[in-house]
Specification:
The protein is an alpha/beta fold. It contains 9 helices and 14 strands. Bound molecules: pyridoxal-5'-phosphate.
Length: about 350
């Protein structure tokens, strides 16, 4: 069977070229006589893999030298606890709740200190991003946490929020490497890799060096950024294979023009879909225009049964995983870096046909 168009929010599509290379190297990596899955993480051959992966990631994201890159486990959800445990010094942190994951991050931080929600878009089912101004931020808070792209509701910060001189922490799980970002505007960026970079099991953290070393005494060793940085992400066994695939994905992105080119491709794909949604009489996009995500496009017909029928017929036609998150219903097309333009083109064709048949 040929490959389908997979619109899954995560784990999600990887570039076919990357999968083919991983397959070709599966049983014997680079003459080592072993799979990357089978080799010691302390071996010279694996050491070269993780170092090259970091180098390529730094090049791709233009990460300055005073930032560390950590390859961790536990998913973005573990970072919801790691961030307050590492960064709360005064015990105060401000949170923007613009969706489900940022809500979870806020809830987790409250366990460890005085976390305050300074803005939310819950009043309109998270269909927009609240405006943030420096005067909203508590002067003595340690950091401000945002979720940069809301995977479930399909919204994204239109710009880096202005938090004055405060440390900005961003969950970028579903938008990392989708476009250039100015890393220097952030203290910490973290992301589960399974949306736009790799298979599940890897979590990437980018942290400004001066923010490490302030963790509370009772922090679990595995969550301490300083421990992980001092040990080059090898305090324990890292997610070796996922790091290797991430490395292949970074090489693929670099070869295809880096993040400027990724942004162009992603905009082109998202515009095609949103333009159709804006003109459709059947489908309605759910996110406010200014805050639309390029990665996760959410839409509804307004009729739950019709939504269901659409997802079923789409799957039968080779467009899989278009069902919205179980908490919100409707539809969601996740169109990360690896989704080709042609996939979105074909989806729009299919939607037009469905609209004509169900008018
Ligand atoms: C998927 C996702 C998470 C949860 O990631 P896990 O790796 O499953 O813990 C958190 N934040 C955002 C923005 C996500 O998209």
């Amino acid at each position: 069977m040929s490959r389908i168009y997979n619109f899954s929010a995560g784990p999600s599509m990887l570039p076919l070229e990357v999968l083919e290379q991983a397959a070709a190297e599966m049983t014997n990596y680079n003459g080592s006589g072993m799979s990357v899955m089978e080799m010691s993480h302390r071996s010279p051959v694996y050491d070269a893999i993780i170092k090259q992966t970091e180098e390529d990631f730094r090049a791709l994201m233009n990460i300055p030298d005073n930032y560390k890159v950590l390859f961790l486990q536990g998913g973005a959800s573990t970072q919801f606890a790691a961030v307050p445990l590492n960064l709360m010094k005064t015990g105060k942190a401000d949170y923007v709740v613009s969706g489900q994951f940022s809500g979870k991050a806020f809830k987790e931080a409250k366990k460890y200190g005085d976390a305050k929600c300074i803005a939310t878009s819950e009043d309109k089912t998270f269909s927009y991003i609240p405006e943030i101004t420096p005067d909203m931020v508590r002067p003595d808070c340690d950091y401000v946490h945002v979720c940069y792209n809301n995977t479930i509701f399909g919204t994204k910060f239109p710009d880096v929020p202005n938090v004055g001189d405060k440390v900005l922490v961003a969950d970028m799980s579903s938008c990392i490497t989708s476009e250039p970002v100015d890393v220097t505007k952030f203290g910490v960026i973290y992301a589960g890799a399974q949306k736009n970079m790799a298979p599940a099991g890897l979590t990437v953290v980018i942290i400004r060096e001066d923010l490490m070393g302030n963790a509370r005494e009772d922090i679990p060793t595995m969550l301490d950024y300083k421990t992980m940085a001092d040990n080059d992400s090898m305090y324990n066994t890292p997610p070796c294979y996922a790091i290797y695939v991430a490395g292949l994905v970074y090489k693929w992105a670099l070869k295809n023009g880096g993040l400027t080119a990724m942004k162009e491709r992603n905009e082109k794909k998202a515009n095609l879909l949103y333009d159709y949604l804006d003109s459709s009489k059947l489908f309605k996009p759910t996110a406010e225009k200014r805050y639309r995500s390029m990665m996760n496009v959410c839409f509804v017909t307004g009729d739950a049964d019709l939504d269901k029928k659409f997802c079923k017929e789409a799957a039968a036609a080779g467009f899989e995983n278009l069902k919205g998150h179980r908490s919100v219903g409707g539809m969601r097309a996740s169109i990360y870096n690896a989704m080709p333009y042609e996939g979105v083109e074909k989806l729009v064709e299919f939607m037009k046909k469905f609209e004509a048949e169900n008018a």
